[in-house]
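U., I forgot to send this yesterday:
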Amino acid sequence: MPYLFRALSLPLLLCLATAQTVLAQAPTLTAEASDTRVELLGFLRVTYSVEGGEGSNFRPPDFKDFSILGGPSRQSTTTIVNGRVSSSFRISYNLATRRAGTFVIPPASIEIDGRRVTSNPLTITVVPAAGESPSAREVGNAEVFAQTTLEKRTAFVGERVLVETELLNRVDIRTYSVLSAPELGGLQVDQLRRFDSYPRQRSIGGTPYQLTRVQLLEVFATLPGTYEIGAQSFEVGIIEPSGGRGGFFFSPPTRPKKITTAAKTLTVLPLPTGAPADFNGVVGRWSFEGGFRQNPSDLTTADALTFHLRARGRGDVTRLNSPALQWPAGWRVLPVKTTREESFETDTGTVFVREFEYTLVPERAGASTLAPSVSWFDVGTKRYETWRAEPVALTVREAGGRQATASAEGDDR
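Result:
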């Protein structure tokens, strides 16, 4: 039998409008570092994201333990999904580490809608350079070589793994070009565009090399197994010393040289057993928040409730398609709407923001407690984590005004 939705009362409409206004206008300033563990003389990007309002009069923190290489750079994004407009604003700084240790970057602040909002602090650990560089014996007398490094050698199904390619040289090079891309059979691949390419120093067997990141990939596996990340070839132009005039337009001549990275192996494990009932396959580092847009005290079988869920984090976003939340019996869920889709790159991968809207219809009168939850596999803790909304207890009346309970209705039948 089709449901007939009656018009909501004026107080309920005001409550709904107020709740929607609060949800839409709650301003936040979030600080995020491209990495919280960085090598000495390495680089990181600190990004401040503003959501829920137009920000002005930004006050950055004191970066006294770091060198500022660039910034502030600003980026604004406006998204329209299902007629709903959302905007975000980001301010970024490129920093270099100066000494080893653990340092706290204090909060930044910004003025949003007439009040000052403060960000979270950031803790950065700076460690001596180690890396995955070959040994002096492997390098030999190489004047320039390339290497591919994996963020980790073992990962779970659906876990994002960063693959970076670097050039290391102890002679001056003018240009480089990619001759062949690595074979990544069986892996989903996203190529990142925004990453630090600042040269840094790396000592191998006492010989100083200049290291430059030239490519950054995110790879995912949908099935367990062993995957090979193939070799990649480059051609570099090495600047030749010249006692007289150089080549074209008196620039120094260059000597071409072909170099190739070594192949790498990634082992992908199946997810552990014992997943919760509300696990929908989401894997990565995620955070969730949400709530009902209204909490009516007068609800009938002709009314509907709206629940809003927000997810933010890193991982295989294709696994985050409209999470099927857990609802008690007696409630029907209409098709889930995606009200926001946004992503932005950092030096440690892509950050995704997704927002979903759930419309619930009571199928019978009676008392209910709604406490939706969603579980995911956290690759940081290596266990299943669960987020639960605050429980909402309510009583549903029959649409005609007759008070009834679910058990009474069952007896009548």
